[in-house]
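Supplementary Note 2. Why include the ligand at all?

Several targets in our set were suspected to adopt different conformations when bound, so apo predictions alone were not considered sufficient. For every target with a known small-molecule partner we therefore ran a joint prediction. The input for N-hydroxy-L-asparagine is given below.
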Amino acid sequence: MISRRKFLGRSLIGSLGMLTASQTACQPTPLETSVPVSPIAGEPIVISTWDHGIPANAAAWQRLQQGGSALDAVEAGVMVVEADPNTTTVGYGSTPDRDGHVTLDACIMDHDGNCGSVCFIEHIMHPISVARKVMEDTPHVMLAGEGALQFALSAGFEKMDLLTPEAKERWEKWLVEKQYKPLINIENHDTIGMIAIDGKGHLAASCTTSGLGYKMRGRVGDSPVIGAGLYCDGEVGAVVATGLGEMILKTLGSFLIVELMRQGASPQEACEEGIRRLAKKVKNYEEAQAAFIAIDKNRAFGAYAIHPGFSYAIARGTENQLIRCDSLLKN
Ligand code: SD4
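The joint prediction is reproduced in token form.
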């Protein structure tokens, strides 16, 4: 079976972009464009992971145009994907754990180092907004499981069943063989992560996922862990990760990449070193995918993956386009 991403890689047209190789060393290959965006003063940029980054960027851009901050934009952007039942790796309609429960992880961080996170939360369509509430309305950074749900309900979030009939049917089929193996670039682990810089030069990052399909109950990946799934420092830059969380957690990749940028690496160089570090430290790294996207406070950006097949979406000026990312392994 050809995966959706391989299919996109083979079939989509190119040559639409204003992006050039000199602007990102990630050998940008435009895969598709859609949802044109208009420029506004201060050159905001929004970058997000995978194909679903295109509609997410469009929503983030709209929020910026309405006067929202980078933080508002990264929340609004990923909410689109959380609410989409056709995305089976984030929010409503996503693949459950092996016991049939949809459990979600999300976090958000701003340029000042404020951050909030929820993990192993159930029944809430927009964990990213709960994460923001944790950041803004509690003295804590991270709430988990039942406590995160209680907090969300007390903050007015609606309790709902996130397991769609389609996802339930797929899970019931999975139960027949109960095989679990993370597959490269296939939709059992496609987080939406987003980084943005607004007209004031403020950075923000967000990340939301259902994690691995058919994971063990209680499994939490990198995505809600500040420093692993994302990191943002207004004096330096912002980074978000996607891929097999167990690998990303072991090297705290997002924090590492921000620190490399602090020491003078470009976002592209830092992402490449982040992947090389992971490859050096994690056994069997070549069996799964991981990727990082990064932007610095000067609006330079970069991305790098272990395997080919990772794409990210970038919105700036009048473009919102999908870019094929360069990778450590070439096939
Ligand atoms: C996790 N990192 O839970 C997430 C999944 C992901 O692309 O990013 N998929 O491991």
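The domain at 43-324 is CATH 3.60.20.30 (Glutamine Phosphoribosylpyrophosphate, subunit 1, domain 1). Confidence is low (pLDDT under 50) at residues 1-29, 32-36. Comparable summaries for the other entries are listed in the accompanying table.
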